[in-house]
Amino acid sequence: MSLPLLLGLLLIPLAASVYAVAAARQPDCSRRVYGVTLAVAATGLGIALAHLLTASTPETLKLPLGLPWLGAHFRLDALAAFFLIVVNLGGAVASLFALGYGQHEKAPERVLPFFPAFLAGMNLVLLADDAFSFLFAWEFMSLSSWALVMAHHQDPANARAGYLYLVMACFGTLALLLAFGLLAGTSGGYDFDTVRASAITPGFAALVLALALLGAGSKAGLVPLHVWLPLAHPAAPSHVSALMSGVMTKVAVYGFIRIVFDLLGEPVLWWWGGLVLALGGITAVLGVLYALMQHDLKRLLAYHTVENIGIIFIGLGLALAFQANLMYASAALALTAALFHILNHSLFKSLLFLGTGAVLTATGERDMEKLGGLIHPMPWTALAFLIGAAAISALPPLNGFVSEWLTFQAILISPELPQWLLKFLVPAVGALLALSAALAAACFVKAFGITFLGRARSPAATQARETDRYSLAALFVLAALCLLAGILPGLVVDGLAPVVSLLNGGARLIPQHHQPWLTLVPVVDVKSTYNGLLVLLFMALSGTTAAVLIHRLASSAVRRGPAWDCGFPDANPAFQYTAGSFAQPIRRVFGSVVFQARERVFMPPPGDLRPARFKIELHDPIWERGYAPIAHAVVAVSTRFNYLQYLTIRRYLSVVFGALVLLLLGMVLWR
Amino acid sequence: MHGLAFDIAHFLAGGMVVVSFLMLYQDRLSALINVFALHSLVLVLAVGWQATIQDAHHLYVTAGIALVFKAIIIPTALHRIVRRLGIHRTLEVVGGVGLDMLAGAALVALAILVMLPVTATTDALAREDLAFALAVLLLGLLLMITRQNAVSLVVGFMSLENGLVLAAAGARGMPLAVEISIAFSVLIALIVIGVFLFRIRERFDSVDMQAMDTFREERRK
User: Fold this and answer.
1) Reduced 3-state DSSP string for B152-171
2) Is residue A469 within 8 Å of A402, Cβ to Cβ?
3) What is the pLDDT of residue A446?
4) Closest CA to A280 of A260, A306, A300
């Protein structure tokens, strides 16, 4: 009964979209639309949660829509239910945030009609059970999010981001289209049940894997297909950025899981896992390195999305490698880690993007070098942002730690893999993962420290005010969920068990809820366990004890003295540590290799009145070596054929005629 | 297939190809339009004969539509346009009639070479019809690209459409509704083109395509 309910529910946001087209300029429209999306997403969340926790069999439904000989197939199984939870949780919180944030929107008619449609599109992708419905919903999602990216299209940077996004989205859909074509085979069975039942040769299966990596990877932001993501995600309004980064990338991961783990089925070859693992490792490290070089808060977060997608794909790659060797218990661990991280990333990335949105509303600035000291005017936003930053940096007792710890547990089992290449590759990827976790922590020390601590670096930052109560409610819902998932990971792992056993031939992790003290025990023969609750208790106890002791034992006399001014008596806020200076050591260590970073110092000779200048030069290797040559080639070819735009009508007819005759001749000769 | 019925169908379809060649040869607009009327008339006969031997009554409607629109209304309208534009006496330069004829012959050969192997499984009548229809279509296109005058372009387009109808009648495929809608769209196309011709003449004092091309070249520079 859940499936028809969910599908019927999707009509409501579509109706809200139509309403928003008509009434976007009315003062109350924004509140009404976001209220509706909040209610719909919350209901969807409830239904999906109920299905995941109670139902054991998938529900299917066939509607006479779409292609006449195919119809529209829909299916609600554990995998779809889990991702529905992720999507609708993100959607509900973003709507709640937008109840306040949306009031500041200058062009509501460009945002309101597309936001509910975007949400409906993402839901529909998860429910689709045939290739046509899947691709239709996928494109619907892409196009409505594109419209949201273009909401502030007057800025040329946004227009460029939108263009690049559109190109990459088309490319991704093309790859998925080809993948489904191969899966359907010559018989053309496009509904997923037929695809599951039919066998496919190993060569074609490998091709489908590659196409799924291209198609879903380009949407998820897998390096080197990520180039559009750090441009497009920040261009949209912040609650949409949260949805795109926190949720839409997860829908892309869903596409990958659905195709590779569900539709392709057995047998899995071991090098598939190696390929996905290597891509994940590279994505994780490059994503965080790019993020460290950024001083635009939203773009920094977008690059972190790339990093986290890398971590998720590491888990998925490990699961494939284990499945290929029939080590289903270990595969269950890797899959649980990946799915857990999907949930976690959707929580803390939405939290961080929404926090940035609050900062953006308060100051109008995204550039960290112009912020600072915001913890004083915006204490609650700062607290929520700090929780999110700690979660994404994988600090216990928050949720980011649990999923990355689970991934490491899966990596530690890898010596049991028989293939030597994997035996070497997996620890290397583990090292990359550790590196990226450490760099992420550094990056968020920078993001939080420069934005919220210190002193305001611009007048805008001095005049900031705390954000409205809807936005704060949204932020704290997410922060609380981050903490809950961190201290009660066993319950989440149990909730994920139906999904894992669906994708993993029935194998799952051992039930966690009756473990003593809610300890997380990933593998039966106990190697290591984690208990978030105890960690929290320990931190609270030791922290309180230390605070009490310090207050009791230290001298309570107040001393006043001048602050040390580093020899600069004029304490200008510009003398503070900047984001650029914070990132400098890491830029020197990694940037000189990866980004060919060069620092140029211009010192005017004595007597010259020009100011000294310090310039940093960074190169994006993937853009300059991968995309720029392709773009140049396309431009060159189209310039050469440009004269075809200016032919006379007779010439055009002649071209048509010539082409027709040539084709017919080819047909004659080919036979 | 009875020998005689097949021969007559073959004769009529072949007749259309011959009339297409006649059109290629005409250098005066009025004559071209007259030959086009003849072309449509042969089409009417061919489709009517197909209706008789296939016992397909809806093809009679097709033939009727073709008779009324293509053989009577459109040629009359074109005559009136030409007369009002005052170009009914002008001679159109048909560059290299001999070359055109040779090209046309080559196109017919190509059409037959393409169609006969492809349709090897269908019955002989449909095969011949399709081959001739493709030939008529290609000849219509050839007419369109070798002429200077916009009215000839229109006639070429209409003869091309005749080829399509012939193919549809032979293949026993096209439903009546599609046929009627095509007939109307062609009629509307004629009206639109007619309006445009007058507008173009108002602007450029000519419907000679070359004159327009030179004008465009100048504007581009």
Assistant:
1) HHHHHHHHHHHHHHHHHHHH
2) no
3) 94
4) A306
Query: Are A244 and A278 part of one and the same domain?
Result: no
Helices (H), A293-419: 297-324, 328-363, 379-392, 399-413
Cα distance between residue B73 and residue B75, in whole Å: 6
Longest CA–CA span in chain B (Å) reads: 64
| B91 and chain A in contact, CB less than 8 A | no
If asked whether residues A185 and A83 sit together in one domain, one would say yes
Q: Give residue B198's identity as a one-letter amino acid code.
A: F
- Partner-chain contact A653 B111, CB within 8 Å: no
The residues with which A599 forms a beta bridge, in sequence order, are A616
Looking at residue B220, its amino acid is R
Residue spans per domain, chain B: 3-220
**Measured distance CA(A522)–CA(A334) in Å, rounded:** 10
Neighbours of A597 (CB within 10 A): 17
Q: Contact, B115 vs B188, CB < 8 A?
A: no
Name every chain A residue with its beta carbon within 8 A of the beta carbon of B212.
648
CA B133, CA A8: separation in Å to the nearest integer?
51
ipTM of the complex: 0.82
The answer to whether A409 and A496 have CB atoms below 8 angstroms apart is: no
- Across the interface, whether the CB atoms of B114 and A668 are under 8 A apart is answered yes
Partners of B46 in the beta sheet? none
List, run by run, the mean pLDDT of 10-residue segments along chain A (671 residues): 88 92 84 93 94 87 83 92 95 94 84 93 94 94 94 90 94 94 83 86 90 94 91 92 94 95 83 93 93 91 95 94 90 94 95 94 89 91 96 92 93 88 92 94 94 89 89 95 92 91 86 79 74 91 94 82 74 82 88 85 88 87 91 94 80 85 87 69
**Is residue A231 located within the same domain as residue A307?**
no
Count of CA atoms in the C-beta half-sphere (13 A) of A362: 33
Report the first-to-last Cα separation within chain B, whole angstroms. 62
Q: How many structural domains are present in chain A?
A: 4
- Among B111, B113, B145, beta carbon nearest to A657: B145
Among B117, B118, B209, whose Cβ lies nearest the Cβ of A650?
Answer: B209
Q: Which parts of A554-599 fold into alpha helices (H)?
A: 579-586, 592-594
At residue A1, the pLDDT reads 74
Instruction: Determine the Cα–Cα distance for residues A495 and A49; give it in Å rounded to an integer.
Output: 9
Q: Do residue A310 and residue A256 come from a single domain?
A: no
**B120 part of contact set with chain A, CB < 8 Å:** no
Nearest CB to B141 within list A646, A649, A657: A657
Task: Specify whether A222 is located in the same domain as A82.
Answer: yes
Q: Given the structure tokens 């040869």, which residue do they identify? A: B25
Instruction: Give the range of the structural domain holding residue A602, as residue numbers without chain letter.
Output: 578-617
- To the nearest whole Å, the CA of A655 is away from the closest chain B CA by 10
Cβ atoms of A9 and A116 within 8 Å: the answer is no
Q: Identify whether residues A291 and A334 lie together within a single domain.
A: yes
d(CA B193, CA A652): 18
User: Taking residues B10-26, what's their average pLDDT?
Assistant: 90
Helix (H, G, I), strand (E, B) or coil at A380: helix
Report chain A's terminal Cα–Cα distance, integer Å.
56
If you ran DSSP here, which 8-state letter would residue A61 be given? E
- Cα separation of A59 and A78, whole Å? 10
- A336 in the same domain as A239: no
The pTM of the full predicted model, rounded to 2 decimals, is: 0.81
Same domain for A311 and A232, yes or no, is: no
A75 contacts A60 by C-beta, under 8 angstroms: yes
Residues 6+ apart with CB under 8 A from A168: A218, A225, A227, A228
What mean pLDDT do residues B146-164 have?
A: 82
